[in-house]
Amino acid sequence: MRTSHLITALLTSLGFCAASQAGNPPAVFQDTAWVVSSNPVYEDVNEPRSEQHCRTTDNWGKRLAGYDVAYRYHGQTLTAFMPHDPGRTVRVDVSVRLAEH
Asked: What is the DSSP annotation of 20-39?
């Protein structure tokens, strides 16, 4: 019981309202994670062009679809697909919930 009071006090000091009953949603906050790698992902696209004599020709090319990103948060490397280059850091949602006994 004393441990749960300490956890509640810690979460409250961080600005969270800790759930005292199982089943309540976790407290969520944002933090920063370091980007380990960011690799562009391209997709093949066809943008047909109309030419003289009412003829349409294929116009295949590559378009940037987004980035496969690996980021590191508290010793874990995680991955995500992002529509833009994330830069050196990304914002992550972190959730906290009391452990069930």
From this structure: -STTSPPEEEEEEEEEEEEE
Q: Residue 85 carries which side chain, given as an amino acid letter?
A: D
Spell out the domain ranges in the chain: 2-96
Spatial contact of 89 and 60, defined as CB atoms under 8 Å apart: no
The C-alpha atoms of residue 98 and residue 19 are separated, in whole angstroms, by 7
Residues 6+ positions from 70 with CB-CB distance below 8 Å: 35, 36, 37, 38, 77, 78, 79
- Which residues partner with 66 through β-bridges? 41
Q: How many C-beta atoms lie closer than 10 Å to residue 37's C-beta?
A: 11
pLDDT tens profile 12-30 = 544 544 444 456 788 999 9
Q: Write 9-12 long-range contacts (CB < 8 A, 24+).
A: 11/96
User: Token pair of 8, please?
Assistant: 């509640």
20/83 Cα distance (integer angstroms): 38
